Amino acid sequence: MNYLTEKIQKPVPWNLLYADDVALISNNKQEVQDSLEQWRSALESGGLRISRTKTEYMVCNFSLDKSSTTHTELKLDGEILPRVNKFKYLGSVIAEDGTITADITHRTTSGWSKWRELTGVLCDPKMPVRTKGKVYKTAVRPVLLYGSETWASKQTQEHKLHTTEMRMLRWAGGVTLKDKVRNEHIRGSFKVAPITEKLKESRLRWFGHVMRRPEDHAVKKCLSMATLKRGKGRALTTWMSNVQRDMKELGLSTDDAYQRKKWRLKIRKADPA
User: Fold this and answer.
1) pLDDT of 179-194, one tens digit each?
2) How far is the CA of 187 from the CAs of 2, 59, 192, in angstroms?
3) pLDDT tens digits, residue range 42-52?
4) What is the pTM of this model?
């Protein structure tokens, strides 16, 4: 893992702690192994036990040389832990290659699961269309966009969200592609803004929140994280490049983020009234 800013001379392991979900992060295998044993000793001395089957580890290596991590192993009390290429943490799926493809798939699956729970309302022909739209905006769309503030989304991934949303709305409205009804008309009936626009709003809202943090705040330091040098071909899509593109489309600059009311007003993508 790459660490923040040139001010940090010595890499320091990070720990993410939330209830019973503990994530140990470091750029050194031995540091992770030592931290894992310290947690095991501390927890099990108090009567708790770390699950040997649910505890997993993932290795992120974004360099071209993958041989250094091929034979990496972590052990818990002498037992080798399973290595995975992705895992879920606090509802988001984190992948070893740093992409969000698995998370997008998980979001669409979760969105359909919530949609099916509400089919009694969404697919009821006697229910007003605007009421269906409110139910969708309140209970389904937030599931699709959970964690989207930090997505470095590509056009294909945004198109997948768009397709998922339109299938939901068409199904709820009893409209098929054979009816030749335009997406804009369906959105207007349900009073729903495009999900890709809400995704941009979510991303810019978080960016403004981060920019208004103190300069030494850990979250703000992430904006200056070291990244790999650009190789041949097209540059990789990053979260910051998405933010810069979104700001350019809206005619905004970084300085505007410090004016909270103006920023929120400019980035808001309201649903049709």
Assistant:
1) 899 999 999 999 999 9
2) 43, 43, 5
3) 888 888 888 88
4) 0.83
